[in-house]
Amino acid sequence: MPSDTSTLLMTRVTFGRALRRLRSEVHHLTLVEVATSLGCDDSLISRIENGKRACSQEHFAALMDLYEVPSPERDELARLHAAARDRRQPWWSPYSDVISAQYERFIGFEAAASVVHEYQVGILPGLLQTEAYMQAVTGVGFASLGPDQIETLVEVRGLRQRHRLLETETPLDCRYVISQAALDFQVGGKRAHQEQLRYLLEISTHASVDLRVIPYEKGEEAAQIGAFMILQFADEDVPDVAFGESVAGSLTIDGPRNLRRLHRLFRGLTESAYSREESRDVIARTLSKEE
Length: 291
Known about the structure:
Elements: H1 8-26, H2 31-38, H3 42-49, H4 57-66, H5 71-84, H6 101-112, E1 115-120, H7 131-141, H8 147-166, E2 173-179, H9 181-184, H10 190-203, E3 209-214, H11 219-222, E4 228-232, E5 241-246, E6 249-253, H12 256-272, H13 276-290
Helix pairs in contact: 1-5, 2-3, 7-8, 10-13
């Protein structure tokens, strides 16, 4: 069963993985075969297994019979199924008219994660940004949106900071690597840049924030890799999930092979970066040049 801190999304993901294991590993059935047996579309089964859709009571009963699940395991899955159909809304639900389905899914993963590994080339990690910095990058990244919508997205990012880092008893363990260029870019103007650097010096002392900077001298290490993030979860049964940036938007990465590669990349980037203390010195020197 999920812990009290699990979100509805993660409960659905855990439930879906259990169903996928029964289908693929135990009974060696395809999505089409299961869908045919239930009289539904195979895309519905796929979405349930991926945690993207709740499973109806009718389909749950049919799946338990099809997979011949014994009573003890069926009872456990029934409790998980009930939790996955919980109607309580997460804190970000009032913003669903502005945030995309992909972003909402990301927030759900972030809300349930225990550790984040993030690499950024030209901007700072979202949970470390000041409001002025958020305003500037959101205004550019979502230029097609109106001022009110941009303001709402900034509010959502601020709430993510509060819920996952600043105002929680169980803060996210944040492990960040950034390029030195991300410190030098003036985002939002000179005053906003100075404010952001001061905030970085402050937040980098937070017990849950490990911020490291790759120096210009190691440019070959930093410049050839795009931004990415890996989320890990306290529940060992829940696999890591990663997000990569592209011109088409954020990409979800959950294949074991790709995840192993990203973990290896992040370890290499961390080894190329300054230590936490040295990174703070670089931030301080950058700030002194701006004042």
